[in-house]
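Query protein
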Amino acid sequence: MTTTQTPVEHLDVLIVGAGISGIGAGRYLTTELPQKSFAILEARGASGGTWDLFRYPGIRSDSDLSTFGYEFKPWRDRQSIADAPKILAYLRETATENGLDERIRYHHRVLAVAWSSEDARWTVDVERTDTGERLQLTAGWVFCAGGYYRYDEGFTPVFEGRDRFRGEIVHPQSWPEDLDLAGKRVVVVGSGATAVTIVPAVAGTAASVTMLQRTPTYVLPVPREDKVAALLRKWFGDERGYALTRRKNIAQQRAIWSFCQKHPKAARRVIRWVNTKQLPEGFDVDTHFNPPYDPWDQRLCAVPNGDLFRAIREGKADVVTDRIVTFDETGIRLASGRHLDADVIVTATGLNVQAFGGVAITVDGAPVTLSETVSYKGMMLSGVPNLAYAIGYTNSSWTLKVGLLCEHFVRLLRHMDERGLDTARPVLADPDMPTRPFLDFAAGYIQRAVGRLPRQGDRMPWLTSMDYHSDVKLLRADSVVDPELRLTRAADRVTAAAVPA
């Protein structure tokens, strides 16, 4: 009896993740390299990534959509700091317009990728999350677009007495659809972007809302609508007006970040002055809105139209800066001796960083340890062929960098196709080059994971740039050819291997 084995599907490019990065990468492949076969594998049952996953009240962008949106697709809504449903609709519209809906395979989680230099391809192990079925496919390239955090659980520190609390404890990453906060006493533990979003969003419904923070965060009010952008669209039309707004906002973001880096004391004074103007007279600004670190050592939190400050002014929300001693049956006991009564505790305590979606990577049978690799141009890893990834900016809009990375990626693929090359492997010219953490960012969620992430070097192309204009030069203007990126073809490798030493 003979059996026939089903041929393993082969793709030119496999994109992992159908969020903002994966949809962007798919669009660039579709328009720039239409002959390439590719698919987008998405572990969940819906596209949109972060903007579909998170369902907590008030969820919105913390960057303006003129820079957070794609360069190739104008953002037409009046909201500049936009709510999640509008961002999700924008992403899905982008996918549909570019024929990506049929390319996305839902409930497909990538478990492992194994590179074979002999075959110049990846073997990819996939699990169907809806059925548990395992399958394999192969790909010439893998493009990791799954973001930087675990989708199945957020970060929650150990809280003494948690099991004693008789109310409900909720993490924003898994917000229950049926959670009713009407008339409830709510304590939101945290001070980052999620906390400052939830507090004003529920302040009008809950009986009381308290933002409990151990350490303050820099918070700035920003207009929800960009009046200059509206005028530019009116005068120049959607596409040209969007392009001009994008340039304006890139320059504005760079100026603010540069000012904070060069003049941290002055920046701190300016932010404190703005906060004081927004808060009630006599409010203890120095306790609750005066972080011990400098501006932009961690990301600034933007609050559209100052909604957090307005909730505090109107007496609908309160801020407490203290240390948690224990949860008890009715709330939280603090180091100061104060007790916060609560019916619902929201642990807005951050994310669990997970590089490359936790996918196991091997090259010619050897496991890849991410912390032993060095980032090449912020998009590939030393010693790892034909694997690209999308990581955006921490000090500006995420998508600004992702767009440049996608451009560079398709240019590299085109260059290789034109010359019959099949393998691109970043190789350090100096293996002893000094390295430092991949992300120079003091945020807790990064610091908890920094030892498990790739490293960066002390020079280009091994630096992970956080400057848009530098990346425009490196990723858009410069050649894809680089002395430390080895481009080869299978036929040459076979010939070289056959020649006696």
Notes: Residues 1-5 have pLDDT under 50 and may be disordered.
